[in-house]
Amino acid sequence: MTIRPLKRVTNQTRERSVNLRRNATKPEQLLWSILCQRKLAGPKFRRQHPIEPFIVDFDCSSANLVIELDGESHEGRQTYDKDRATHLEKLGSKILRFTNDDVIDNLEGVAHVILCAAGMNPDEPSPSPSLQGRGN
Q1: CA distance to 6, 15, 28, 65, per residue, from 103 (Å)
Q2: Statement: residue 74 has pLDDT above 70
Q3: The domain at 25-117 falls in which architecture?
Q4: How far apart are CA 87 and CA 83, in angstroms?
Q5: Which residues, including other chains, have CB under 8 Å from residue 97's CB and lie 6 or more apart?
Q6: Span 15-61, pLDDT tens digits
Q7: How many whole angstroms separate alpha carbon 111 and alpha carbon 136?
């Protein structure tokens, strides 16, 4: 397993990440509701996490997994997103991208993909009551 090198976060990046957390979009809030506090079968996630020089939407460092949500703000930024993904992959990260609509319309499916990518067994019952019995 590749470990990302530690790099000191600049004050500017830290401030931007705090601002992004405070102004999370509805799909980010929805996905965070199942990722926070290890609700999704145990892996720890951080939101709006700095990996210099970028801030990723969600990060699971134990699985070297980065989750990005693409909404309207990503339109016309395909080159930037590709360069960013290349940089993060060189650091050993696996990138999962979901659209905002994926999260809103199919949260269970998104959770399943995330669990598989994090190396967890999605067929085991979730310890989180928030995921059990939730409809699509």
Answers
A1: 30, 26, 8, 17
A2: no
A3: 3-Layer(aba) Sandwich (3.40)
A4: 6
A5: 67, 68, 69, 70
A6: 999 999 999 999 999 999 999 998 888 789 999 999 988 999 999 99
A7: 12
Cα 33 to Cα 20, 28, 38, 53, 93: the distances in Å are 16, 9, 10, 26, 23
Q: Provide the whole-model pTM.
A: 0.80
Give CA angle at 47 (29, 116), nearest 5°: 90
Give CA–CA dist 15/46, Å, rounded. 15
Residue pointed to by tokens 């969600």 = 58
**Could you tell me the two tokens for 85?**
């993904």
